[in-house]
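Researcher: Next sequence.
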Amino acid sequence: MTQCINSLAQIAQKYDAIVFDQWGVLHDGSCAYAGAIDCLVGLAKAGHSLSVLSNSGKRAAPNAKRIADMGFSNGLFNQIMTSGEALWHDIDQGKIAQSNFFAIEREQGDALAWAEGLPIELTELHNAQAVLLMGLPDAAKLADWQPVLDQAFAADLPIYCSNPDQHSPRADGLVISAGALARAYSQRSGRVIYYGKPHRPVFQALSTSLQAQRFLMVGDSLEHDIAGAQAVGWDSVLIQKGLYASAFSNADHDVVLKTLLKDLACQPPTYSIKQLQ
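Model: Next structure:
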């Protein structure tokens, strides 16, 4: 049974490492959520190990800068791990055969910056051996990308998706994310290789790096943050005012959570909290 808590400080002493999602937990893509910085500063001052595990197609460094620009000191975190960082290292270590990629990115230049230092070429779709799916523009609609999926499917191209999220919170609501496009490709029997939550490797990589035993994952997605944590034996905290903010708003918590768990076929989180505090 999920326990509702009023602050992370209530339970922090039970864990060796506390791991935070980014969007919907720390910030909305534009600014930090009220109370989030103070919460993390308090936890760090109390001696708790804090890290970030994000489904971002970008590498760790630009994510660290984005978080710092919003007021979160880099000194707060032991490590910042992203799905884009994990994919970069697999290519760098020769674990991926393809070297010519057609990039789908949130903003022009994202893929070029990400690929720096790798022996790969970013090319047009007709010359590609695979698709690099890092993100989608905020105004994107799945129908806009149907021609790309059609051409990729006809050429039997695999998609490397480094952001499995279906939707992402923004200041003015939710936007479609790269994972929704990857799912559409998979549903037509296209081959998709996912990097990031809820898939085990990114959790295991962070666990190995931090050398901790008792982990707590703090996230706003039952399908990605919570399910991924459960798969590797971590406890979890669901943030209510993130991805499911509209569902939890002015409604009974237990009823909403029960409905979400049923609809998404997920298991309940260990804890639930309105927002970081």
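Model: The longest strand covers residues 50-54. The radius of gyration is 18 Å.
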